[in-house]
Amino acid sequence: NNPGNGTSNDFYNEVSNVQGLINQFNSDVARISELQGKSLNAVDGTGQNLALLDDQVAQTRDLGNQIKRRIEALKRQPVPRGQEARKNQVNVVAKQFMTALQNYTQVEKEYRQKQRARVERQFKIVKPDASPDEVAAVVDNTDGAGGQIFSQALSVSTKYGQSRAAYREVQDRHEDIKKIERTLEELAQLFNDISVLVAQQDESIDYIQNTAHDIEQDASKGVEHTDKAVASARAARKKRWICFGLFILLLAIIAAVVAGVVVTNNNKRK
């Protein structure tokens, strides 16, 4: 369950393992969706199917937390020089998990909506002429208000047996909706944690890219300055040689003039 000692092979093996767990997570979500469908079609919300659903949700919750921990462990691994691509790989895996979490969240939201619709239908069995406010109160059951309204409707219903059965199912469905709400809260927290990690990773990648760009620009400027320095040095050396040549020429002229004067004086003495 550990990413290894940080070597390249260990890192990429762990990335592959985590991706395998994400695939398993998606399969578990598909199984949850299947069990939810069976629960909705059942006469009531209890029984073996509901137990299977609760167990599958718990396993998927544990798997999601495990994936999160292993992605965080991958992110904490030191990145050797020359292997900066690792950072982007962690980002890819994290985003794959975020997509899986979004899919699971959508499955749970759809299940919640169908459960609420089932509660509404059961209440209307007891009170067909229920107002929208009464229906909303029973469906949401805020502070137990829905139970009171349902109890009042039961007291005047002419379909006592059917109404009692509907009431029991509504109670079961309310429990299911509470479980869905807890699952949605857990998924939202997981998604938030991973999105923060991805944001940090993106900032790190941007920093590396910007730094590399700055280094490239600095290197280009350095080459440009070096070329200018070399050209200036060559020009300076050329000027020095020209000056030296002119100095030699001047000395030669002076020597020639002095020699001429000396010859002229000697001739006059003769």
Automatic annotation (TrEMBL):
This is t-SNARE. It comes from Thelephora ganbajun (Ganba fungus).
